[in-house]
UniProtKB/TrEMBL annotation, chain A:
<feature type="domain" description="NOT2/NOT3/NOT5 C-terminal">
    <location>
        <begin position="33"/>
        <end position="170"/>
    </location>
</feature>
<feature type="region of interest" description="Disordered">
    <location>
        <begin position="39"/>
        <end position="61"/>
    </location>
</feature>
<comment type="similarity">
    <text>Belongs to the CNOT2/3/5 family.</text>
</comment>
<protein>
    <recommendedName>
        <fullName>CCR4-NOT transcription complex subunit 3</fullName>
    </recommendedName>
</protein>
Amino acid sequence: DLGAIGDNIGGNANSGGVHDLVYNTQMLEAAFYKLPQPKDSERAKSYTPRHPAATPPSYPQVQAPIVNNPAFWERLGLDTLGTDTLFFAFYYQPNTYQQYLAAKELKKQSWRYHRKYYTWFQRHEEPKIATDDFEKGTYVYFDFHLANDDPNQGWCQRIKADFKFEYSFLE
Amino acid sequence: VMEPDASSFQKQVSLLFAEWYRLSELPSGTDTPCIRFVIQLHQNGLLRGDDITERFFRVLLEISVSHFGEVMQSSQQVQSSFLAIDIYAKLVYSILKHCPVDQGSSKLFLLPKILAVTVRSIQKDADEKKEDFNPRPYYRLFINWLLDFGSLDPVHDGINFQVLSAFANAFHALQPLKVPAFSFAWLELVSHRTFMPKLLAGNSQKGWPFLHRLLVDLFQFMEPFLRNAEMGELIRFLYQGTLRVLLVLLHDFPEFLCDFHFSFCDVIPPSCIQMRNIILSAFPRNMRLPDPSTPNLKIDLLDEMSLAPRILSEVDAALKAKQMKADVDEFLRTRQQSSPFLSDLKQRLLLPPSEASHAGTCYNVPLINSLVLYVGMQAIQLLQARNRSQPQSVSSDPLAAKAALDIFQTLIRDLDTEGRYLFLNAIANQLRYPNTHTHYFSVILLYLFSDAHQEIIQEQITRVLLERLIVNRPHPWGLLITFIELIKNPDYNFWNRTFTRCAPEIENLFETVSTSCG
Amino acid sequence: LGIDLTTLGLNLNSSENLHKTFASPWSDEPAKGEPEFMIPECYH
């Protein structure tokens, strides 16, 4: 009795509304049985490969759900074999959540993405020079070795000495 | 060229939509066919932004919604088919992305028009179908767009903000007071992780007023339902959903709640104590709050207590609306006791009888809130100026500070029980994190307690504090330090007041609360 | 007396932002599926 006078839930018009309370209650009740469902917010996850290839039906035809799980990618980051898998996901699954997770994991493993060379670099040792704008030293980088006659053409990790990494190119 | 008359226009649009569906289902990885289709629409004169454009999108939307259905699967699962809605959403996104625009105009010039068509269609559909209105296809449409536009490169920050503000305007037009049947879908969209966080983060807070307006829309709709402490299941559901949204804001964007607390308190009914406490408990993330129960805590020595809180709400709007601001300023300047200002004050805070019934109170609560905070802010400014110019001064308070106290003492004396409760609430709403307002209004409240000539006033002051403390957490820091001061400082002689012992359960209550406050 | 707000399904002590996995005002379950992610232009 020391507070504001009681309510008057009745048919009085709402402040500023176009409907009265009774109407609003009826509409709310109806809406209560048509709530958005979780799947209403989820989009089809079908990953459409750029160049779809017909594979035998015994092959998995859709991605395994685990590739959406960040923990799966963190595990890969911990094991060297996995690092190549991270690079594979980064370069072969563009614009997907997998690419995002692979990049996140590579960064956690101290790889740095060079925007100009589209290449991941990792310090091989402490840089000899480091200023506000760049650092210079020896790096490991992940590269595609293109040499037709060379049997071991393909992705590989190479060493680059005396490389200047300008921070303006650091993503 | 599109036929102007409705039926053939509808047929032609339907054929175009079928063609679009076929294209977008192609497995090709490139956008070329879609881009070509969009350019074709543009050449057909459908994307000029005129009334043909509006009819074009309205018909497309009607077709898409008419194809929304819930089909019973063999496994007794209800499968909602959003296919047409998804295809339509993708067409709109492709048009906005690839439609040729005149030199200099924004790529998104069609977005507000398309959203306006969507808003009008939803309003019309809801008004016609009433209880049979189904919000889900429209919800899905907006989610598609929020996800698509959200993937626009953040580099075009301007585009991002243009998109977000266009959606905020559309949601404002679809607010629950206007389309009550869309309320649950509406709140889910407004609080969606692809919308609300983006509206608040980045863009140098330009999005904050938009979300503020949307939350006020929600509170205004709920207000009449929430005046009554007992809620039905339906309102409880809406209320709990609102609490979840406020908790996300309290945790992730507390500064937003801090800066707009004043206008939120205008639209949250006094009975919604916990919901209001969530807003009043917010404090800036870079602030560390000392434990209120720290023994001998010297709150006036806290650095933060000398900093004014940022308030983005328009504090004096209600005073201006009732042509009271000039009189208040005049009184603060002259403190003229002979003026009728003080004696007329109570009357000016009352609502006309015609408005009182649907407002659920005899008083203009926003006006009381505005008067209390505006007057307090004027006094604080002058007190701070005086302290800066004469740090050790023992001279009397500036005139306006005394005038402010005259106003508060007049109100506490002249108002009836209900009016006094609302006035004390307006003060207690300023007891938040350490800042000049918390400090000033804490002192004012305790002063009014010690200065009171009737115990009923002390009881009401205690009630206003206590009812905010006995509800589940969170409790605003300023509220705790004020109550602790009241019960610990012997100057207030609190425990000898008869009302602290008026009934065994009340006695227990005070013991419990004072124990929990340390 | 309000309600115990820790029963609404939100981890109020989380050091992470809650909005990233906020599914809906009507659900006390976190959002499933891919959370929000942004692919920088230069990854393309």
